[in-house]
């Protein structure tokens, strides 16, 4: 008998690996909320949604992107690039663990209309019950555009609990002590079955386990973009905790992956107080990878993240994640700082 969610795990690895092959183009469009989106974001979501539609036709999908701007597009040529890129990825040769039944491999081309419909299958509003996937086709788009870290993120949830999480990080060194060495990592977790790092090429699985708390090496992993998380709140927490190592600034859920493998002590995402609500696709896969590596992920009140509220995590109390034996200590200091800072409590 196979382990629970073996099929979903195998699928998610295959889909994320394939999506990682096409996130190399950076032509952009600015979305309604002023954030950038690239042809890579659209093509990766189209690819994964087409594969999902073949593999698990009844499952619902919460995807970051939608095709409204592409349908409205006049003469920008982006749509044609997306069709080209997505089809290149769809029709690529089958590798180990890939199945033609997933709508991939030679001869699997789709039309522009089919690809836009596929992108829009990610429009599920989310909820508390049933099977659902959440996709961030490129997380850390700003990092991607700077040639830095980004991640292709796919998570599978049942009744609002993440059961499978996969992150593909094409620019992440396999070993942080060799920053100029081989790059391209895949992180995979299944609830109750642990987490692993695999090379993007598919080789060398390493089980992940976070090292115990050590005050002398403890530090924070935080956003590069000051608009995404309050770096000044982190500074206050850091000095109250007596942390001496500087924070590691990195875009995307690669932060969760680095935490899971012991590169950094805590993932810290304190709200900037502007009423933003965190999106489920920005945390689902990464949070499971951290939990399965021996960490705890919560908001700044110590409550678990709730993936059953819809497309967002609801009112924003931030996200803090760290190894089990450091969580209570960190939470105490976080609460000391947030009690003194009204912006953290502002209602979204
Ligand atoms: N004001 C805000 N506060 C928190 N997160 C925000 C934000 N505006 C955008 N984001 C999210 O921050 C994500 C990137 O996180 P990070 O800073 O850790 O790299 C973005 O994902 P995308 O790049 O997928 O759009 C976006 O969803
Ligand atoms: Mg985005
Ligand atoms: Mg994102
Ligand atoms: Mg994204």
UniProtKB/TrEMBL annotation:
What InterPro entries does the annotation carry?
DPNP, Inositol_monoP_metal-BS, Inositol_monoP_superfamily, Inositol_monophosphatase-like, Inositol_monophosphatase_CS
Q: Which cofactor does it need?
A: Mg(2+)
Q: Does the keyword Repeat apply?
A: no
Its Gene Ontology molecular function terms?
A: 3'(2'),5'-bisphosphate nucleotidase activity; metal ion binding
Biological process annotations from GO:
phosphatidylinositol phosphate biosynthetic process; sulfate assimilation
EC number(s) per entry:
3.1.3.7
Q: Which residues form a coiled coil?
A: none
As its record notes, the protein acts as a catalyst of: adenosine 3',5'-bisphosphate + H2O = AMP + phosphate; 3'-phosphoadenylyl sulfate + H2O = adenosine 5'-phosphosulfate + phosphate; adenosine 2',5'-bisphosphate + H2O = AMP + phosphate
Q: Which UniProt keywords apply?
A: Hydrolase, Magnesium, Metal-binding
Query: In which residues is Mg(2+) bound?
Result: 64, 136, 138-139, 282
Give the highest taxon in the source lineage: Eukaryota
Family membership, please give it: Belongs to the inositol monophosphatase superfamily.
| Protein name, per record | 3'(2'),5'-bisphosphate nucleotidase
